[in-house]
Amino acid sequence: MTDENTYTIGVDFGTLSGRAVVVRTSDGAELGSAEHAYSHAVMDRTLTASAANVELPPEWALQVPADYVDVLKTAVPAAVEAAGIDPAQVIGIAADFTACTMVPTTADGTPLCELEQFADRPHAYVKLWKHHAAQPHADRINDLARERGESWLPRYGRLISSEWQFAKGLQLLEEDREIYDAMDRWVEAADWIVWQLGGQYQRNACTVGYKGIYQDGQHVGEDFLAALNPDFATFVQDKLEQPIAQLGDAVGHLTAEAAGWTGLPEGIAVAAGNVDAHVTLPAANAVENGQLTLIMGTSTCHVLNSDELHEVPGMCGVVDGGVIAGKYGYEAGQSGVGDIFGWFVSSGVPAAYTAEAERRGISVHAYLTELAEQQPIGGHGLVALDWHNGNRSVLVDTELSGLIIGQTLATRPEDIYRALLESTAFGTRTIIEAFTSSGVPITELVVAGGLLKNRFLMQMYADVTGLPLSTITSEQGPAVGSAIHAAVAAGAYPDVRTAAASMGHRTVGAYQPDSEATAAYDRLFAEYTALHDYFGRGENDVMKRLKTLRREAWEASTSDGVSAPTLEVPEELS
């Protein structure tokens, strides 16, 4: 039994903001929380952090590392104040991050964008997880790996993502050699923020395994990297290599500077960094085999554990100890979910709908959901593909794009909205079928994240997949998961699994599938699958051709000051 008067703090760094939560170590009770929005948000059109206001090409997504430190300075002390506890009772702190989010730094951890000579250089900034401009470099990595029969490729569903460390690193080398040469460390943001907190730089086992092509104790070979580009041969030893910390390990202790930022006691344990999705499983006490946890927000990550190692086509990765020690952690994902709903609400809803939602005092999302819920399954006559931000699993192709088929002059906004909701559920079912057909059984869905509030959507997921759906009890799953890891790092529990049993909570079977609804959705899912394979597996590459045309048009117009459009995603969906 742990001391009922000790607490840990988890800090969750999301796409648009950072959230801190104070958690009691004995039972996981949340005493206080606070949130801080990043001042620069996501820079995907222009480099707003620079006075030069440099325009960015399509598929770029950058951030400012100082915004992350501001979260420590504001959200952490605010959470402690809200909790009403003595900071001296806090015994540990941990952080999680969106991934793969990369920071180029000097040897002492200074981000290159903070150096005056590089302030106007886009490649000196943080490349956010959804920076997809490295797709051509990912394609070369995949082509070469297949050609050489690299043994590590099946561990990643036979496709390396443009979002990950090596593709982004290769892009940096080949597009801005000066920045690449000035960079001493290519650092995951999860590890960078821990470095700022505890003064020690170690790479966490989660991001190393899932995003860093690290399997069976080794990285990609130097000969492979040299075949991509001779100057990339020593990328691992020159830019990446560092001691690897296991999840729940203490990586240093809170420095005097970080204690000043946070108001916490100097010297408390700082846990190894983690990925926001993977750290959520302990918060829901969902670390056993067959429990597929969906972290649903702007995107969805799908994570589960198994005792066995299998190759699953299109998975993001399988890592020994990637979630908890002693189990293989599997990850898949959908690049756009809440992002897609947000796009439609911001760009496709008539003013009359917005006015009616305002009159009733509800969000446009809630209003559209009410209207959509009244329809019979299939009543809108539509099927959509959820690829508006590319496809992460199972096709692993950011060059794919969204599609809605079946529209007529009678199609209404609520019809489209429901079809988009359904498309994301069908995408999850596609992922589930990839796992189960590969020998990784799934018996329960566990949902966390901002989209939990949409009860209609939750029931839809249960019906589409035919699986019972449990829900995490916390609204701050990643932050609570980080707090659990902080408790282990501080010695309150021997391991993450034990800590999760006391500090993690979920409502088991909150939604049960309706057999009639499942049968009705089966017919729509068959149509979704036909479109999925037709546009996604090479029979018709029109989506890729259109993206090529878009890039060519953008490049031709840059001299005229024209830039690609962007989307401001509502924070409620992140």
Question: Would you write up a description of this structure?
Answer:
- The chain is an alpha/beta fold and 574 residues long.
- It folds into 2 domains: 307 residues, Nucleotidyltransferase, domain 5, CATH 3.30.420; 200 residues, Nucleotidyltransferase, domain 5 (2-Layer Sandwich), CATH 3.30.420.
- Helix content is 38%, strand content 18%.
- The chain contains 19 helices and 22 strands.
- Strands 1, 2, 3, 5, 11, 12 and 13 form a 7-stranded mixed beta sheet that branches. Strands 16-17-15-14-20-21-22 form a 7-stranded mixed beta sheet, with helices on both faces. Strands 4-7 form a two-stranded antiparallel sheet.
- The longest helix has 25 residues.
- The C terminus is likely disordered.
Beta-strand portion reads 15-25%
User: What structural class should be given to the helix and strand makeup?
Assistant: alpha/beta
- Fill in the CATH topology of the largest domain: Nucleotidyltransferase, domain 5
Portion of residues within helices: 25-40%
Identify the CATH class of the largest domain: Alpha Beta
Q: What is the CATH superfamily classification of the largest domain?
A: ATPase, nucleotide binding domain
The count of helical stretches stands at: 19
| Bulk shape | globular
| CATH architecture title of the largest domain | 2-Layer Sandwich
Uncertain regions spanning at least 5 consecutive residues: 567-574
Task: Kindly give the count of domains.
Answer: 2
Query: What assembly state would you assign to the polypeptide chains in this entry?
Result: single chain
Number of DSSP strands? 22
For the residues shown, what is the average pLDDT?
95
- Biggest sheet statistics: 7 strands, mixed
Q: End-to-end span in angstroms?
A: 35 Å
Rg, rounded, reads: 23 Å
